[in-house]
Design brief:
By secondary structure, the chain is mostly beta strands. It has four helices and 13 strands. The chain is globular and about 45 Å long. It starts with a helix and ends in a 9-residue tail after the last helix.
């Protein structure tokens, strides 16, 4: 399978995520066999603000042109801040997503250094269209469940699917998390992209019988990084003369 074929295969699963704080990328990672629930994978930092403040999240499905607003009561968010990973669980409702997700890499395997991988996302500089990026794996950090990749990740691409092309299908291996520039000389030089693996996503929708159950078990808002930021912010009037 060529890269252009992999991109074409993944686009029906791809969504653009917008919150009052910013935007990012997501993709269909899991569907329930017994309910209408599905899970959208993205980076935790894309949605933790909306989760903590219970603000709406708009999900746009470019392949169909459909856009749906999900309020806090319409979704459940499961975060793993330690690996910047999030799953938005929702009733697919009006979103015309595929019936089955693409295959994830086996949870006992990881991709070796030197292998080229690609990723898709909606960069802030051109957020109306999905853009393709690629690079070679430099290192897999097993303890942190992340790949360091010789490639670029810019604002808006966070949460995007990372994949490699097999003979007849793309295989999803992670989500875009961050870009770490080289600042050793004081000026930003080319660095590495950080890709988190898909640890928390295996059969996530099968863990819940309903959206209500998923909401009951979602990550407490107080455990988000946004909660830490809110707690650290000075109260109004603090420091005034």
């Amino acid at each position: 399978m060529e890269w252009h074929e992999g991109i074409k295969a993944i686009k029906p699963y791809l969504v653009h995520i917008s919150t009052p704080r910013g935007s990012g990328t997501g993709w269909l990672v899991s569907t329930s066999k017994t309910t209408n629930l599905c899970a959208i994978a993205t980076a935790a930092h894309v949605v933790d603000y909306a989760h903590y403040w219970e603000t709406p999240i708009r999900i746009f499905h470019p392949d169909s042109g459909k856009s749906v607003l999900f309020r806090s009561s319409d979704r459940a968010i499961h975060l793993d801040n330690s690996i910047d990973s999030a799953a938005i669980i929702l009733d697919r409702g009006e979103l015309p997503l595929p019936a089955e997700p693409l295959p994830l890499i086996d949870h006992e395997h990881y991709i070796k250094a030197g292998v080229e991988i690609g990723w898709l996302g909606f960069p802030a500089v051109h957020s109306s269209h999905a853009c393709f990026f690629s690079g070679r794996i430099s290192y897999y950090n097993e303890a942190q469940k992340q790949y360091l990749v010789d490639g670029v990740a810019i604002n808006g691409v966070s949460g995007g699917p990372t994949f490699r092309c097999l003979d007849d299908t793309p295989e999803l291996i992670g989500i875009v998390s961050a870009y770490i520039p080289n600042r050793s000389t004081g000026e930003p030089l080319p660095g590495v992209a950080v890709i988190q693996d898909v640890t928390q996503y295996y059969d996530i929708t099968e863990r819940f019988k309903s959206l209500d159950e998923a909401r009951v078990n979602q990550t407490p808002a107080e455990e988000t990084e946004e909660a830490d930021r809110a707690a650290a912010a000075p109260e109004p009037g603090a420091g005034d003369a």
